[in-house]
Amino acid sequence: MSYRSVEEIFEAFDDLKVLIVGDVMVDAYIWGVVERISPEAPVPVVRTTKRDFRLGGAANVALNVQSLGATPLLCAVVGDDDSGKRFIDRLSEKDISSEGIVVSAERPTTVKTRVMTSHQHVVRVDEETDVLLSKQEEAAVYKKIQQLMDQADVVIFEDYDKGVLSKGLIKDVVDLAQKKGIPTVVDPKKRNFLHYKHVTFFKPNLKELKEGLKLDFDKSDQKAIEEAVAVLSKKLESKGSLITLSERGVYVDYKGENHLVPAHMREISDVSGAGDTVISIAALCVALDLPPFMIAALSNLGGGLVCEYVGVVPINKQSLLKEAVKQNWI
Fold first, then answer.
1. What value does the mean pLDDT take over residues 99-113?
2. How many domains are contained in the chain?
3. How many CB atoms lie within 10 A of CB 143?
4. Residue 306: is its pLDDT beyond 90?
5. Strand order in the sheet with 201-202
6. Cα–Cα distance measured from residue 50 to residue 155, given in angstroms and rounded to the nearest whole number
7. Is residue 29 assigned to a domain?
8. Which residues pair with 33 in a beta bridge?
9. Residue 270: what pLDDT?
10. Where in the sequence is the domain holding 145, given as residue range(s)?
11. Is 273 helix (H, G, I), strand (E, B) or coil?
C-alpha cells in the first residue's frame, strides 16, 4: 500500500501488533546531589533525592512501539525475585501485557542502576547474568512465541547478549515467521551476530558491524561501510540492513536501494535508548512495507529526538510526526 502523507503512515501504525523477543531489564535511577568528596576514597558522595524504576532493554522497545500507537507483544524472561516482580508491575502500569513473560527461578532479573546528579551520569551498577537459558526455559519461551505469533505483523529480536536468544531459538522463530509471512527485524549484539540467517531487516550500529565481521576501517570511510554491508547481507542471506552511524546518521541497503541519511543537528543530552527507538520505528515501517529511504529517514529522525532527553525514554509520537511533516518526504 502506498501512503499519500506522513500522517497516513502514523495512522497506520495504530493498527499494527509487534512481537518483541529478547532481553528485558529494569533501568533503575538514583538521582541526587553532590556536595562533598568521600573521606574514604576520592569519590563523590551522592545524597539521594529521588529513585526511579523504568522498563529497559526489549521492554523499552515495547514502550517505544506503544508510544508510536502500535500494540507490543513482549516475550522475555525475568527472575523470580523482587526486581522481576517490579518489572511485571511496571508492565501492568504501562498497560503492556505480561502474557509472554517467563519467570525463572534459575536466573536473576537484569537491573542496570544509574546514579545521576545534575544531569551527569556518575556511575552505573549492573546486576545480571549472560548465561544461556536452560532447555526447559527456552522451550517455555518458544511456546509463548508460538502463542503470540499469529497476532503479529512484524517480529523484533532485541538482543542484549543476556542469554534469552540462542542460535537455535533464533532459527526456530525466523522459520516460524517465514512460514506465516511475517517480517523479522533485528537489533543484534556480538554473540549471536551471524546467527540471524534469512531475516528481513538487520540493524547494527557501526561498532557492532565492524566487530561482527571482524573488520577495521575508519568510521568516515563510506565505501568501506557499503562493502561491509554487502558482506553482511551475503553472510546472513538477509533482505536488508540499516546501519546507525552516530553523528553521521544512518545507512540503509534494502530492496535494491541504498541511502546515506545524515543526522539532524540536535542538543544531545543522553544517547541511552536511542537504538531502541530506531529499531521500533524501523520495524513498524517494515511492517507497512515503506520504501527504504522512508524507513531510514523516520528511524534516524526518531533516534535523534530521544537523545535530547536524559535517561532512557520512549519516543513521543506527536513530536516525531511534527518533525517528520517538516521534512516534506512525501
1. 97
2. 1
3. 13
4. no
5. 100-104, 71-79, 17-22, 154-158, 184-187, 201-202, 240-244, 250-254, 257-261
6. 36
7. no
8. 47
9. 47
10. 6-24+57-105+129-327
11. coil
For residue 36, being part of any structural domain is answered with no
- pLDDT tens digits along 53-101: 999 999 999 999 999 999 999 999 999 999 999 999 999 999 999 999 9
Q: What is the pTM of this model?
A: 0.93
Active site residue 276: yes
* 3-class secondary-structure state, position 115: strand
Considering the candidates 153, 159, 270, 276, report the single residue annotated as catalytic: 276
Q: What is the pLDDT of residue 313?
A: 73
Q: Is residue 50 part of a domain?
A: no
- Which residue, among 143, 201, 205, 202, has the nearest Cα to 176 in the 3D structure? 143
Angle in degrees, 0-180, between the axes of helices 6-13 and 317-327, rounded to the nearest 10? 150
Q: Locate cell 519461551: which residue?
A: 141
Is 61 domain-assigned? Answer: yes
**How deeply is 223 buried, as exposed, middle or buried, from its count of CB atoms within 10 A (0-12, 13-18, 19+)?**
exposed
**Alpha-carbon distances of 177 from 169, 184, 186, 245, rounded to whole Å:** 12, 7, 13, 29
- 115-142 residue pLDDT tens: 999 878 899 999 999 999 999 999 999 9
The CATH number of the domain where 154 resides is what? 3.40.1190.20
